[in-house]
Here is the input.
Amino acid sequence: MIGKRTQDPNRDDARRPRTISISLADRGQTTQDFAVGIGVFLLAIAFVFSFLPSVITPYDSSVGGAETAQADRIADLIVHDVSTETPNEIARGGFGSRYAKENLTAELGLRASDSDNVVFDRVNVSVETFDGNPVDTSQLSGGEVYDDQSAASSARIVTLDPASNKCDPACRLVVRVW
Here is the structure.
């Protein structure tokens, strides 16, 4: 016979009080479960944010701080060496005689192989107008040919000794190292 309970006549109807107990089977989640879950979640998020930039960066080597510092030092050296009495004014003839060459390793103290004539530090030096056009490629440009590759650059605002129409009011001395 299912569903019908019969009462025992000898049974006392007074019920005893229920004991209060904490049972893990009755609870859905404990504090420890929550802490472990949040910890694993935060570790997974940290891993994604640290790994994702290396996945989407290009495989081309980026320019480091050493190349940027080297370009800055070369720009300072050139402005100091060929400047006139006026601050940031360079002498066109002095620049052309010293830095308008294809190989600037000896002039700038760059690293190169003595036996094979292999240049390790490539540099391009040019005086440009503010729109990026070179002023005079024969007298005011030197070093390796720059073909828009990844390079560290440093620029100085300069004027030319005999005032040039293209450098009105000033030009930029741009040094690129790669």
User: Anything to note?
Assistant: The longest strand covers residues 152-160.
